Amino acid sequence: MSQPKARPDPALALLEVYDAALPQVYGYLLARCGDRAVAEELTSETFLAAVRSARESAAPVGPAWLIGIARHKLVDHWRRREREERGLRLAHDDEPGVQDPWDVEIDAMQARQVLASLAAHHRCALTLRYLDGLPVPEVARLLGRTVHATEALLVRARAAFRRAWTGGGDE
After folding, report:
1. Given Cys at both, which of 133, 154, 158, 166 links 100, Cβ 3.0 to 4.6 Å?
2. From first to last of its 171 residues, what are the pLDDT tens digits of the chain?
3. Domain that residue 24 falls in
4. 112 shares a domain with 84
5. DSSP string covering the chain, please?
């Protein structure tokens, strides 16, 4: 009597793309969070989640798929960080809801530093919208907010970025 063949682990497909995808995923995360330790941690979380996902579904395994998982891990990281910051913050956000057509070319290094100085919810919204180029409805979906609330968040985030950029104080 022949033994039934063992089904190969679907997560093995990750091994085929791992060497090429690892620097892409890490680079994506590092460019958006600016912290090597956080980028390394999120890269690890991305690949662990990819293994789980590959085993649960027949998702096509590839670098673009992994970047999508990395984006979700980054959003989750910023959400956790925002909850921690909110728990420590005693005062609430008093930023005015000013329309902001501010569109200037800026120094990327200073922009990263300014972005890193913002609260996690502002940093996350700005990164998803302007660095990742996602439309507002997609940013809203990823942040678990309404489109209207996300638009208001982006207005406040741009104002906070502008204040930090011009030295007008923290958000």
Report:
1. 158
2. 566 666 667 677 788 888 889 999 999 999 988 889 999 999 999 999 988 888 887 667 888 889 999 999 998 898 888 877 776 665 455 454 444 444 444 466 778 888 888 898 999 899 888 888 889 999 999 889 999 999 999 999 999 999 988 886 544
3. 11-88
4. no
5. -PPPPPPPPGGGHHHHHHHHHHHHHHHHHHHHH--HHHHHHHHHHHHHHHHHHHHHS-PPPSHHHHHHHHHHHHHHHHHHHHHHHHHH--SPP--------------HHHHHHHHHHS-HHHHHHHIIIIIS---HHHHHHHHT--HHHHHHHHHHHHHHHHHHHTTS---
